[in-house]
Every structure is written in structure tokens, then in C-alpha cells.
Amino acid sequence: MSTEQPQQQSIRVLFVDDQEEIRCLFSAGMRSEDIQLDTAVNGEDALKVLAAKGYDLVVTDVRMPVMDGIALLKAIKERYPRLFVVILTAHGTIEDAVKAMRLGAYDYILKPFDFSTIHRLIAMVNEHRMLLGENAESSEDTPYRFENIIGQDVRMFEVFHQIKTVASSMATVLITGESGTGKELVAHAIHSRSDRHEKPFIAVNCGAFADTLIQSELFGHEKGAFTGAGQRRSGHFEMANGGTIFLDEIADTSPDLQKTLLRLLESGSFFRVGGTSEQHTNVRIIAATNKDMVAEVLAGRFRKDLYYRLKVVSLELPPLRERRKDIPLLVEAQVRRIAREEKRKVVPCSPETMIFLLNHSWPGNVRELVNVLRNAIIFCDKEKIMPGHLPREILNVVGPTTLALNTGTLAEAEAALIRGALECVSGNLSLAAEKLGIARGTLYSKMGKYGIQRYE
């Protein structure tokens, strides 16, 4: 496979700000052959421009009349989920930047902005846009997809870069990350982009077999090697010859298997179980684990020499809670896929539901998200997936409604708690009242008492 660097392409940018002098200043500072720039005066104007012309990146101010930058970001993520969005915000409104990042903004820039910083950021966006390749351009249902991995978070783009770089190498790879982060997907992506892509890719879960069976699975056995071995059988290392073998849960292997794997890595040879004839294979090994391998080595449960043989190249996958901006993208893609598999109508998540999904800690990562969505789709009886379709543990999110002890007076504390609850559920009064344990009418009365406007 070619590892040639893609030629730099021009990028189409829409800048949104209600102040004419800022728009003129930005346009002057962004003059470049590689940047095609247009401007809009507010969120509503930007949506009209976006509907008429295609763009790669939107750079928008937060505080604007008619439709502010946060509302524009939400609308863009609903209508044009593959668009990169960068937020401009003043030092005093850093909370807006935090909110924007949670809603899927690629990055934010503090005012007064520095044009060299903006140029670097636009170059990075352009590089990431091209890295996504043909999928991002040709497939309407796979925004921000690299091979079969979806993500627009900067940490995922780092993973994409690593995959692309290591794919052309012969080096063994050790992938680490929590359960459910997509280690097998990454292994398959490396194989797909390598020179071995036309040869077999075989995945083996080392923790799924007893030690007496895993040796036979991996290396094969001779006839009569053990009870039930009625004929010679080739193992995965023979079947994967010329291709890639993925060894998941490598930390759970026994000392005997670790010794055999070390010999194979050093010499490319092995013996079938019960065999005396040396076998040879040309296979690339990609291993993965959700454990701390250094701790396993120090505890004597994993061979130090094998560990260093496996981690010639190491890739660490971030947990879902550390790339929350990818959740809306993942939800959109998985809802479509699950609906196809279950032969159901594609139903989007309501804004309130998305808030709960964004606030959950996802200890099971993407795998847990997929299971939650499948359950919701199966039982969904409405036009959208509502909070009531989610498991109880996801609805029991404390999040922004946590009361700080330094809030001040009791009235100030109550007002802060109400504001937090409203923000957590995107302004839905019924859900906010439910979280606070009060009637909807009582909540509305207290909002009037404290001068709290309905959340926008």
C-alpha cells in the first residue's frame, strides 16, 4: 500500500461574527492560496450560507445576536455532522468554550486571537480532513470515519496518524486501552493499510481458551497429539501466513505460551502440538491488552523479554469519557447500523437524551454505548430516543447539579442548583424537576423567584 503523503488541498472556511470590523480583520489576516474564506453575520445567516455552499470548517464567535455560536454549533452538528467547528471566545467566557467542546467543537481560540495560531489550527484541521480520506468525501453515513473507526477528537486523530504510519512497517504492535475502546478495530485498520491487506487477518482472544487448548488453536496439532485429535490440524499461525494475527488479552497467557510466542517472534518458527517437525510462518503479530503491562511484568506474571518484543510500537486508545465530543458522531453512526440490523426505523436521539449520554462516564466505553443504543432502539415507541429509553444508571447522573459548599446563602445555593439541573437536561423543565425532586410547577415558580430564564 502506498504511504505517500497526500498533497495539500485548499480548505473552505466560513467565519461567523456579528461585528463587521472583526470580519474584515479576519478576512485580511486569512488571505492565502490554501484558504477559501467567506463570512456570515450570525448563526442564522451562517446556516443559510452553509445550505447554499459546501464548507470544511466553520470558525464562529460565541456571543452574537439572533443565533449565538453555541446554538449554531448544535445546528451544524445536527445538519452537517462532518463539518469541523472552531469556537472563538473571550477570556471571561471560557465556560462557553468548555460547553462547545462537549457539544462537538473541534477546538476553541481565545480572543484577542493571534493569526499565526489560527493558521496553525486551520492547517491541522486540513491535515485531519485529508487523513480521513475518501470515506469523508464519498459516504454520507460515515462522517469522521478512518477505516471502521469513528472520531473527530484530537486524540483519535493521533491514533489515526499512528495507524497510517505503522501500517507500512513490519514491526509488532502492542495496543493498550480499556475494554470496549476498539482495539480489534485498530488492529484491523493497521492490517487493511499494510502490504499484507490481501492476506488473512485472524483475531484470537487469548483469554477465551484454556491453556491446553490455546496452544492447539494457535500452532495446530498432529494426529493423536491428545485425546480427540483424530487428524492433523493447522493452527492460526499457519493459516495467517503472509498476513496478520491479532492476539487479544495477551496479558492473560500462561508462562508456557509466552515462552512459545517468544521463540516464534525470535525465529519465525514453531512446532505443532505433538509434532517434531519445525514449522515456519511469515506473520505480523499485533497484540492487545486492557491491563497495565508494566505492572504485570513487575509482578512476574508476564515475561519481560516478550513484553519488549511485542511493544516495538505501542498504541494507547483513549477511553470514551476522554473523547466525549465523539459521542454524537458515534451515536449517529451506531443508531443507523443497529436499526439496519434490527430491521427498525432509524430514530434520532432527542437533545435531552444526548445530554445524558454526554454526561455518562462510560466504564464499558464504545461497547457499552452500542449496547445501550441497541436496547433503546428495540424498545423505542416514539419518533426519537427519549431519556426514558435509557438504563437507570445513565439517568442517575449528578453532573452539573452537584451543590458546592461555598455557594453562599441558601437562596443562592438553590438558584445555582436549579441552573445546573436545567443545563444538565438542556432546559427541559420536566426532566429538571424530576432531577431536583420537585413538581414542574414548583420549579417554574422558583425560576421566577430567582430570575432564571428558560435555558436556551
List keywords for this structure.
4 domains, disordered N terminus, Helicase, Ruva Protein, domain 3, 456 residues, Rossmann fold, single chain, alpha/beta
Any idea of the CATH class of the largest domain?
Alpha Beta
User: How would you name the CATH homologous superfamily of the largest domain?
Assistant: P-loop containing nucleotide triphosphate hydrolases
Shape: globular
End-to-end Cα distance, whole Å, is 49 Å
CATH-defined fold name of the largest domain: Rossmann fold
At CATH level 2, the architecture of the largest domain is 3-Layer(aba) Sandwich
Rg (C-alpha, Å): 26 Å
Say what oligomer this is. Answer: single chain
- The class by helix and strand makeup works out as alpha/beta
Uncertain segments are: 1-6, 134-142, 398-405
Compose a concise summary of this entry.
The protein has 456 residues and is α/β, with parallel strands linked by helices. It has 20 helices and 14 strands.
Note down, in words, how this protein is organized.
The protein is an alpha/beta fold and 456 residues long. The longest helix is centred in the first third of the chain and has 17 residues, at 115-131. The radius of gyration is 26 Å and the shape is globular. Helix 2 (43-52) runs parallel beside helix 3 (69-79) and helix 18 (410-424) crosses helix 19 (429-436). Mean pLDDT is 85; it is low at 1-6, 134-142 and 398-405. The strands form 4 sheets. It has a 5-stranded parallel β-sheet, with helices on both faces. It has helices at 20-29, 43-52, 69-79, 94-102, 115-131, 133-138, 154-167, 183-192, 211-219, 236-239, 255-267, 293-298, 304-310, 327-342, 351-359, 365-379, 392-395, 410-424, 429-436, 440-449, and strands at residues 11-16, 35-40, 57-61, 84-89, 107-110, 145-146, 149-150, 173-176, 201-205, 244-248, 269-271, 278-280, 284-289, 313-316.
